[in-house]
Each structure stands twice: as C-alpha cells, then as structure tokens.
Amino acid sequence: MTTLSRTMVPEPLMSIRAAEKSYRLRMGFMASLMGKRVPEIRAVEDVDLDIGKGEVVALAGESGSGKTTLGKVLSLLEPPTSGSIWFDGLQLETLSGREKRRMRRRIQMIFQDPYESLDPRFTIFQTLHEPLIVHGIKDGGVTHRDMTRDVLDRVELRPPEDFLDRYPHELSGGQRQRVAVARAIILHPDFIVADEPVSMMDASVRAGVMNMMLRLKNQLSLTYLFITHDLAVARYMADRIAIMYLGELVEVGNTDTVINQPAHPYTQILLSAVPIPDPTYGRKRVAVPGEIPSPTDKPSGCRFHPRCPYTEDICRHRRPGIVPLVDGHLARCHFALGVQGGNKTKKDRSAG
Amino acid sequence: MAAQVDQVQSQFVESIAPGGMGRTRSFWRVFAEKKTALFGLVVMLLAIAVALAAPLLAPQGPTHLYDALLSPPSSQHPFGTDPLGRDVMSGIVWGTRISLLFAVGVAGLSLLIGVLLGAIPGYYGGRVDDLFSRFFEVFLMIPRFFLIILVVAVFGQNIIFTAIVVGMTSWVTNARLTRAQVLTIKERTFVKASMATGASHARVLFRHILPNGLYPVIANSSLEMAGAIIIEAALSFLGLGDSNHLSWGQLLFSAQLHIHSWWLALFPGLAITLLVFAFNLIGDGISYAFNPRLRGRG
Amino acid sequence: MEDRLLLDLQKLETRYSVGRADVHAVRDVSLKVHRGETLGLVGESGCGKSTLGYSILRILPENGRIVNGHCLMEGSDLLSLSEDELVNYRWSKLSMIFQGAMNALNPVLRVDDILYEILRAHKDVSRAEAMERIKELFDLVGLARDHMTSYAHELSGGMRQRVVIAMSLLCNPSLIIADEPTTAFDVVVQDQILAALEGIQDKLGIGMMLITHDIAVIAETCDRVAVMYAGQIVEQSSTEAIFHAPAHPYTAAMLNSFPSVRGPARCLVSLRGAPPDLTNPPLGCAFAPRCPLAVEQCREANPPLEDLTTDAQHLARCYFAGSDAVTEAWSAEESQTGGAGG
Does A4 score more than 60 pLDDT? Predict the structure, then answer.
C-alpha cells in the first residue's frame, strides 16, 4: 500500500487518501447463529486522488469498478469505511452531522437517470426551491423565485417562467437533466460529482448538456468529478482522467497522456475496445480473455493479472504500487514504463 | 440565423412506446376507466349524502316509535317497522352515520398507526427493521375477537372503544405496506438527490417518500373500511354491539328473533352488502390506477 | 445485385393507437437488404427504428398496426401473409435479436435446453442433432462449450447476449434484425459482441439489419446506412459516403455530436428541441424546426427522398441535399443562446 508522498495536483480542492468503501451483505438470522462469515464487498479500495480547483476529472471504468461508489462517498451520501477525504482543508469524514449538512452547500451531485432524479410530484419550481429551504437561504431582495428563474436561464431552459410550474413528466430527458444541473448549482457549490449525467441520452442531446456543463464550469468556477463509462465522453469533458478497475485506481493523468500514451494494460485494452465513429479508421481489436471478476472474489496480487497480456509471476503475488511517470501521470502496474513505451513483451496467452 | 426557437414540448415523444404518449395519465382518468370503481365511488358518495341528510330524510330519528308494530313495507314505512314500532328505513338512514363513522374511525386509526410504525423500519432498515418486524408479528398474534369480548366485559358495550380496539389490531397490514413502499422508494434517485442537497430525514420521509408511496395504503384503507363495517355488523349481531347507537348491525340483531319478518333483516343486510361492496370496488380501483404499468410507460 | 436482394421493404406505414389518437411511428419507409450485407438503421429514441423491425416480423403490440406497405422476401409479401403462413418465415428465414433479450432468458432452464426447445418448435430434430447444432452455434459466437449446461443467471451479460445471438441463428435464417445488440454493455463486452456479429457475417454471409443509436457501431460494422428521423428515412447510403459527405442536415448534426477517443479534438454539435409529435405529423419537413437551413418551402412540404447519384446509391430527404450548406450548417453552432434546451 503506497500513499503518495506528494500531491498529484498543487493545492488540490479535494484530496482523497487511502479511501475505502466496503459493504457487508446482510446475513440471515440462522446464518448468524451458525457463525457463518459475512461476505464483504470492497467496492472501493485504497484510492488516492487529487482534484484541483476548476478541473474536470473524469472517473472512468466499467461496471464493478467502484466509480459510482466513490462518487457517492465524495458527495457525502455515504461515509467511507476508512481513509480520509480532504476538502478545502477540512476532513470530511470527521465532520459532525450538522457540519456535513453545511458542507452539502459546497458539494453537490448530479445523477444518471433524468427520469428518476426529479420527484414526479414536485413542480420544477418546488424541486429547485428545496435546496434553498433546506439551507435556510433568505427569501428577500432576491426572491427564491428569482433565484430559480436565474438558474433555469443558466441551464438554457428559456423562458424560465414557462418551466417553473411544470411537472417532470412534461419535460424531455435532456430538459430534465438540465433541471437536475440547475438544482445542483442553485446553492453556488464549489464541487459537483456528476454520476454518468449523459449516459441515458441521445447523442445530440448529450452534446448539448456536455457543452452546457463546460460553460457553467467556467462561468461559475466549478470543479467536476465526472463519472463515466464512456472514454470518448471522458476525453471530451475532462482535463484529467482516472481509470478504475475492480475498486482500485489503476491509472491517472492528463487526458491526452492517458488516451494516447496509456501506461496500464487495462487502460490500453479499454481504449482499444472503444468503437470509432469513422469507417476508415481500421481499429485493431485486442482479444481480452475472461470477464470482470466478481468484487467478492478478487484476484490476488494485481487485480488485473488473470486477464493481462503482460502478466508475470510478481503480478500474481504482489499488488503493484503506484508508479509515478512524467508530469503527474501515475499507473498501478509493475511494468508501467515498459507498457507505456510499448517495449514490454506480451505473454503468449491462450485466450479463454 | 442559426438559433432555432423551440416550443416546449409538452408531449413526451422520447419513446413512442405503445400505451404511453403522455408520460402519465392522471390518476382519476385511469380510475374512471374502471366502471366498477366508479360505481363504488357513486355508492360511497350516496351513503355519505344519506348520512349527512339524515335529519332531512328521517326527521323523527331512528328511535321514534310508531303505532304500526312489526308491519311489513308499506307506503308509510317503505322498509317496514320492527317489533317496537321503529321505522326500519329511519334506522338505516341514521345507521349510515354509525357505519361510516365506525369505518372511518377504524381505518383512520389503522392508517395513522400503520404508516408511522411502518415508515420507521422502512427508512432506517437494519436492526430497527428487524425489531419492528418482530413487533408486527407479535401484534398479529393478538386475537382481536377475544380482546373485544374482554373490552366489552370490562368497559361495557361502547362503540368507541370497539372502534379503537379494531383499529389498534388492524394496523399491521398498513405498516407492512408502508414499510415495503418506503424501502423501495428510499432507493429511488430523486430521494437520494434530496438527501444530497442536505434535506433532513423528516423532510425526505414526509415530503418525498410517503407522498409517492401511499397509494397502496389508501387502497388498503378502503378495504379496511369495508371490513370494519362487517366487523361492526357481526359484533352487533352477536350482541356485543352498542345499543345506544342504532347501527345496521343492531338492526340485524333485533331481526334474529323475528325471522319471518323478512324486512327486518333484508334491508339492513342489503345496505351492509352494498356499502362493503362499494368500498371493495373503490379499493380495487385505486390499486388499478396506481399500477404503473397500466398507467402508460413509466 | 438484384438476385442478391433479400428483403425489399416498400412504403411501410405503421401506426400505434394511443387513446383516441394515432401515433404515426413509421411513415413511408422503403429499404432493401441484400445477402451478405449489413444495413445499419440509425436514429435517436422515438424515431421508429424498433417499430420498423417489429413491423417486418409482424410482432407489433396490440395497439400497433401496419397501415400500408409491402415487404417482399423470397417472392412473398410478408405484410400480407396470414399468421399460419408467417410461421414458415419467422425464425427460419427471418429472425430477430431483441433489445434486452439477454435478460429475458428462461431462468429455470439450462441454456442448451432453451435452445433445444426453440429448435424443436421449428424443426423435427433429435436431441443429439440439436446438441450438435447448438455446439456449432456456440463456436460461431465465441462461447465455450461447457457453458451449454449453465443456467442463464450463471452467465455474464455478454455471454447471455451471445446466447441470444446463437438463438437467432438456430434455424439458419437468411436475414437477422438486431435491435440495439450492444447497448447497455461495458465497452469490452460490447466489443466482444461486435466481434461475434462480425464473425457471423463473415462466415455465414447472411443479411443483417442492425438497429442502433450509436454511429460508432455503425461505422465499424455496417456496409450501408439508413438514417431515420421522426418515422422517415432521411438519408440512405453506403457507410463511407454518409460519413464522408452527409447529405442531410440531421445526419451531419448527428455525426458531429459523437465524441471519439481518436482523431482531432473538436467542439460537438448540440441539437436543440425534440423530434415532432407524431400524433400529428407535420406537413413539411419534420426536421425543419431544428434545422439552421430551413426555409419556407421546408415547412410547407415534406421533401421527397431524392437520389443524389444515378443508381439509388445515395438518397436524401432534403431540399438542400448534397450541397455544401449541409455540412457547413453546424460549423457555426457552438453554445446556443435562446431556445429551450433539448
């Protein structure tokens, strides 16, 4: 277990160290009588990550990677099992209930499903109004209604008056997601965790929401943790990309570097699997054996070793530490340098 | 130039799935589709009207004694009279109040206790849930009938106490329904979103979870009202009723000794059957209207 | 070319009755699929592409009906056959990979039994013969044979999808309609499924209609593409031609709204608004309200599907089809002000 001796980013806004989130499955009464051990799912394991002010960091990975869980921990929806999360100098996991509540003004979340993230019985106004009530924002010179109008305008739902008294079912998916963004920004937060905010949309709507989020970031000095499974979206949105696999952070670095010079075998494979919207591209497919293992039954040593084309003995026995490469680029692999440079020999694997 | 003004699309065309153009059709629209539910609603409204208009319909009151004793239905007494000379129709009209009040009282108490005691384990889960669930099971073991006999023996025949006892022994279904609903709805994204903005537990529970989840409880309450009416009738029929309040069951009680005077049993019986049937249909209608799959693509 | 013609869909019109209104889900669609060819049908949600697939197989839900059109396959018009006659076509000549089918496998049967039952329903085969066929199919889609005795829940999503693909091939159809076969999967699994589909194409040379909203999948697997919008085909051509020189503004917008991990970084185009309400299909071009090129004529009369070449190789439904204005229409579109966001 290596912790970083220096931060990845100078003066990070959010700093995560050795974060871990485990879930214990509930055991039946009889099973507990018989002394059975409860299986534990370590959804997030030993994650170190820094996020700088004004950055967009994409947290990318497939299912079971733990990215959504990490997102929930960072947005204070769930406490970490262990580890520390520093936000603007404060240690989040040690905050009292009241302090945590106040912290929610500064950390907000946007969810994946635009059809589900708005209470169907609340008008748009009521949905946007709730954060104001919850945090006791004064309804005075600038009325609450003014604030909701302003925020709807910012997310390009115009004219705002037309939307305030509508119900979610009267809006399209893209419009609802814009309302969700409006709800997230109405308290002027510093940090927004966006959990797959564009995954459930058609492409053209997606582009609009992404462009809007980028524009808002600049206008309102926001910082995003953008969770996604789509590397193309990550490339578009993010300044830096962090790749997760089976609960661990396996690679993090500037977008260009991670996309064009990946140093972790999993990243390479992930990138090679993305279809390219260009019929002349000629993508070379890399066959990957096996499937993502269950989080309850993680491989020993390096979690990726059973599927990795470069596996050697050490990979089976020793969990790799973080290897620092150039310019804040980090990868968790015994052979990161060689993998990145393309001079690590691939083992001959008989694919499953 | 470029920017195209777009009209707000109030039709949700994102998925032209069969059966769903508007996102949800209103609750009443769907409820009204079921003719039986409408029938039940009409009957219930009629009963309420009768109960309210009792002083107008039967100004003499249910206990007024007429000269005609035990007389069959006639133009003066459309439902006949009982051995004491009381007009059966007046009895039914005034008895509507008793039945409805009893039903509402029982269902109301059951709803109040049930929702509160069901929301807590649903929301907090874990050990709290285990504890409450065991408590529910214990409560279900209480034999309602014998408890009522006990209450009657100790406090005498009092319809209010009876209502309280019945209400306090029937809340478990509501509690379980509420618990199940709260457990599911708590995981829905808009609830998590509300929590993420910092809403308190109370706010999340009472403004988001319960309003979205109470439909099954309301449907069940309608069924409970039906059940309450039958319970009251049965208790009275067995002599455990409150003779101070002339209910439909009381009418049936006094009809026992005069089997051949068919009008004494028929009309109260019909009234009970009709109202119970109506509440059952309403309960069905609410369940149907609440079922998301039947309401268009959710 | 003509003797390789497998499916000739002409002027299909399908409607759904919803309440008192009719949704015109498919309006005047004509398509051809040839042997050995993969035709991509691309469009956003609600454009009618799935409805199209269901119409061809005649498996529309209760409130759907085909109002017009012919679908010629091997000399017969599928749309006018009776249910009894259709039995000879469904699955044996024409099959479908349904969206989300991998979650609908019978949980109480082993996978080989599931496939065996289906095969038996269409052909009189012995269990031994069926097992041979199933082994063949497993090899074809890249599934290990030992998974034949597994239950659906024991297999991962990607494996289950490959079972569904095998299922569609059981009776050796000449045409498969695949409805969003890669959606909802992780990218590595998606790639495996794409590989399976490509493998089938290479080895069997059947015709395939691939329905999807993902143009990257189209780019990699399809020979020809038909772009659908608001129930109509707005452009149809070879994959290269469509990507190289889209002739319809909607196609151009769509192509420029997909991010990619390769290629130059560029600003994506966002489309405002939403497709029109199809209970009252517009008289003019359905895309006009969202189109930067729209003029009066566009709103008044629906443009016909015009042939830009001489041999129906590139069709587009736009008065500006083929002009430079189409590809340049979106270059000035950055963050828009005004208009309700889509």
Answer: no
Minimal C-alpha gap between C274 and chain A (Å): 8
Q: How far apart are CA A234 and CA C190, in angstroms?
A: 18
Q: Which residues of B touch A104 (CB under 8 A)?
A: 196-198
- Rg value, chain C, Cα: 21
Contact (CB<8Å) B8/C332: no
Look over chain C and give the mean of its residue pLDDT values, rounded to a whole number.
Answer: 89
Neighbour-count burial of A247, counting CB atoms closer than 10 A to its CB (0-12 exposed, 13-18 middle, 19+ buried): buried
Query: What confidence tier does A31 reach under pLDDT thresholds 50, 70, 90?
Result: low
Which alpha helices (DSSP H) does chain C contain, by range? 49-57, 83-86, 111-122, 127-141, 157-169, 187-204, 215-221, 239-244, 249-255, 296-300, 324-328
CB contact under 8 A, C18 and B14: no
Quick one: pLDDT band at residue A28, thresholds 50, 70, 90? low
- Cα–Cα distance between C330 and C80 in angstroms, integer? 43
C79: distance to nearest CA of chain A, Å? 31
Residues B186 and B129: beta-carbon distance below 8 Å: no
Q: Where are the domains of chain C?
A: 242-342
d(CA C117, CA C130): 9
State how far the Cα of A231 lies from the Cα of C258, in Å rounded to an integer: 12
H-assigned helices in chain A: 29-33, 67-74, 97-103, 124-134, 144-154, 160-164, 173-185, 203-220, 231-237, 255-260, 265-273, 313-317, 336-341
Residue in C62, C278, C340 nearest the CB of B6: C340
Q: Give the domains, in start order, of chain B with CATH numbers.
A: 27-57+79-295 (1.10.3720.10)
CB atoms within 10 A of CB C59: 13
Using the predicted structure, report yes or no on whether residue C334 has a pLDDT greater than 80: no
Look at residue C332 in the predicted model and tell me its pLDDT: 57
Q: Are the beta carbons of C3 and C189 closer than 8 angstroms?
A: no
Which residues, including other chains, have CB under 8 Å from residue A175's CB and lie 6 or more apart?
A157, A163, C340, C341, C342
Mean pLDDT for A182-202 is 93
Question: In the predicted model, what is the mean pLDDT of residues C197-224?
Answer: 92
Record: contact A205-C271, CB cut-off 8 A: yes
Q: Please report which helix (H) or strand (E) contains residue C14, including its range.
A: strand C5-18
**Cβ within 8 Å, pair B19-C48:** no
Token reading at B160: 């209010």
What are the respective helix, strand and coil percentages of chain A, to the nearest 5?
Answer: 35, 20, 45
Q: Which chains sit next to A, with 3 or more Cβ pairs under 8 A?
A: B, C
CA distances (Å), C303 to each of A314, C151, C275, in order? 66, 52, 17
CA distance A119 to chain B (A): 5
